[in-house]
């Protein structure tokens, strides 16, 4: 505890580093995964290719990926960009599947009714399909956020600073309190991100507040909102 | 591209096939370590998961615990346990067993939960005992989701075993860290490629197993197959 009190400044600085590394992957993966998931659902062939590719990408271990990326994209080995890109790739791999599932969960009758009312494919996607798959997407993004915050720490072993640096430093210097502080701070940050997503979901999808909390595999109730 | 060429050269270099740092030996270590961890984790998680799935009790606790464990960074757990028990192979075994439990547990109890209640009621109605229901109905029907959980756990263990080389002289991860220390990018890249190939090979094997363990009555033409969310991280939730 004395270590923590004496090093609050350090913990705060690493927390900020951590936020800088984890926020971009979370945002970028969503922006990329939505159109990709839509495209995966659009054609039988694209579905097979994209979902298999996402599955394989997700199977690639994180540390080796961070080592391989510099050879592929020409960054320096110690660049934080590698960590950001690696985590974005994982986020995409996870979210593409979720987006596909989410869009699948929209009732075909609802889709047809929307078309019958005169929605174009484009506006039907934005105004009907995407909002209705919202709860599923939110559940997926919560998983992405928590696992991204946790995975950022891996970068510390090659020297990319984050809360993970408290693990490597604490390990090398034999300070247990430093590692525990890192663990607590990482989990706390994950909870903050998770809470922010839940809050965003409440604001963006007010109709979900009245029905039971959504689960990804359960077909969505089409409420009268 | 010559970076990859030098990594391939490193992988094929005969000098890397002799002694205590030989590639086949490291692959063997990596696999044995992962297998032992998975056996430990399964021994704890599968009976517990089946108990939760069969009785329906303790589900909330299991969901919360596995969700919470996901937020815990592997590296933190590894280094902390390593400080407690000292540098060596014990710390990775403990840390990785803890990390492998949630996906297997989730696979075990969701496998039971995904079964149509009417199927179980029918089994009870024809006079099966509780033990028979577990053995002859729930076990085979829940197997695909359990294998899905084992698949997620395996991927995670293979990945984390690489990281475990940070605290122990163990597995393919050694190449990454020793290459990092000596600034030998060919070694780091070569080692990384080997880990990635190993992970993808196991993923492929599990995909096949998962296909084969679906009971014939479910996969077949009966048309009443329950919706199985097989594989992937979502199934581990």
From TrEMBL, chain A:
Which InterPro entries does this entry report, sorted A to Z?
Answer: ABC_transp_perm/SBD, MetI-like, MetI-like_sf
Name its GO BP terms in alphabetical order.
glycine betaine transport; transmembrane transport
Membrane topology according to the record: Multi-pass membrane protein
Q: What are the protein's UniProt keywords? A: Membrane, Transmembrane, Transmembrane helix, Transport
Every copy of the ABC transmembrane type-1 domain together lies at 15-197
Domain of life the protein comes from: Bacteria
Pfam families for the chain: BPD_transp_1
Q: Which ranges does the record mark as transmembrane?
A: 20-40, 49-73, 79-99, 143-167, 179-200
Subcellular location, in the record's words? Cell membrane; Membrane
The entry's cellular-component GO terms read:
plasma membrane
Q: Does the keyword ATP-binding apply?
A: no
Looking up PROSITE patterns in the UniProt record yields: ABC_TM1
PANTHER family listed in its UniProt record: GLYCINE BETAINE/L-PROLINE TRANSPORT SYSTEM PERMEASE PROTEIN PROW, OSMOPROTECTANT IMPORT PERMEASE PROTEIN OSMW
Q: Which family does it belong to?
A: Belongs to the binding-protein-dependent transport system permease family.
The identity of this protein, by name, is ABC transporter permease
Task: Tell me the lineage of the source organism.
Answer: Bacteria, Bacillati, Actinomycetota, Actinomycetes, Micrococcales
From TrEMBL, chain B:
Q: Which InterPro entries match?
A: ABC_transp_perm/SBD, MetI-like, MetI-like_sf
Q: For this UniProt entry, what is the primary localization, expressed as one broad class? A: membrane
Q: Which UniProt keywords apply?
A: Membrane, Transmembrane, Transmembrane helix, Transport
Q: Which PROSITE patterns match?
A: ABC_TM1
Mind telling me which Gene3D superfamilies this protein's record contains? Answer: MetI-like
Q: Which GO terms describe its biological process?
A: glycine betaine transport; transmembrane transport
Q: Where in the cell is it found?
A: Cell membrane; Membrane
Q: ABC transmembrane type-1 domain location, by residue?
A: 27-206
Against Pfam families, the record matches this protein to:
BPD_transp_1
Report how it sits in the membrane: Multi-pass membrane protein
**TM stretches of this protein:** 31-53, 60-87, 93-112, 145-168, 188-209
Similarity comment text for this entry: Belongs to the binding-protein-dependent transport system permease family.
Specify the protein name. ABC transporter permease
Tell me what organism the protein belongs to: Cryobacterium zongtaii
């Amino acid at each position: 505890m004395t270590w923590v009190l004496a090093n609050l400044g350090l913990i705060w600085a690493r927390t900020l580093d951590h936020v800088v590394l984890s926020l971009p992957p979370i945002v970028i993966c969503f922006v990329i995964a939505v159109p990709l998931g839509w495209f995966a659902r659009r054609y039988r062939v694209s579905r097979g290719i994209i979902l298999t590719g996402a599955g394989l990408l997700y199977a690639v271990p994180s540390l080796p990926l961070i080592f391989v990326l510099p050879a592929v994209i020409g960054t320096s080995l110690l660049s934080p960009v590698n960590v950001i890109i690696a985590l974005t790739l994982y986020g995409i791999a996870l979210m593409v599947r979720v987006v596909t599932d989410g869009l699948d969960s929209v009732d075909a009758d609802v889709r047809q009714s929307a078309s019958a009312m005169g929605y174009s494919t484009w506006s039907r996607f934005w105004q009907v399909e995407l909002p209705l798959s919202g709860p599923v997407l939110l559940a997926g993004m919560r998983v992405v956020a928590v696992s991204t915050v946790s995975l950022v720490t891996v970068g510390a072993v090659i020297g990319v600073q984050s809360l993970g640096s408290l693990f490597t430093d604490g390990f090398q210097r034999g300070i247990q309190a430093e590692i525990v502080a890192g663990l607590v701070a990482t989990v706390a940050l994950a909870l903050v991100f998770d809470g922010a997503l839940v809050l965003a979901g409440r604001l963006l999808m007010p109709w979900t507040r009245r029905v039971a909390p959504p689960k990804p595999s359960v077909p969505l109730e089409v409420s009268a909102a | 591209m010559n970076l990859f060429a030098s990594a391939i050269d490193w992988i094929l270099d005969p000098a890397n096939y002799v002694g205590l740092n030989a590639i086949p030996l490291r692959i063997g270590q990596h696999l044995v370590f992962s297998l032992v961890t998975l056996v430990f984790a399964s021994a704890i998680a599968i009976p517990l998961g089946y108990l939760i799935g069969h009785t329906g009790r303790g589900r909330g606790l299991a969901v919360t615990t596995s969700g919470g464990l996901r937020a815990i960074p592997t590296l933190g757990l590894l280094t902390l346990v390593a400080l407690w028990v000292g540098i060596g192979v014990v710390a990775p075994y403990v840390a990785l067993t803890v990390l492998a439990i949630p996906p297997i547990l989730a696979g075990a109890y969701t496998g039971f939960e995904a079964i149509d209640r009417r199927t179980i009621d029918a089994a009870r109605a024809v006079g099966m005992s509780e033990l028979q229901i577990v053995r002859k109905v729930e076990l085979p029907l829940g197997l695909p989701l359990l294998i899905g959980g084992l698949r997620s756990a395996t991927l995670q263990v293979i990945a984390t075993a690489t990281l475990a080389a940070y605290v122990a002289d163990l597995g393919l991860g050694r190449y990454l860290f020793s290459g990092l220390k000596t600034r030998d990018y060919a070694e780091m890249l070569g080692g990384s490629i080997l880990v990635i190939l190993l992970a993808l090979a196991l993923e492929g094997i599990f995909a096949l197993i998962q296909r084969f363990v679906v009971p014939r009555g479910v996969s077949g033409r009966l048309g009443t197959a329950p919706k199985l969310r097989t594989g992937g991280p979502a199934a581990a939730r």
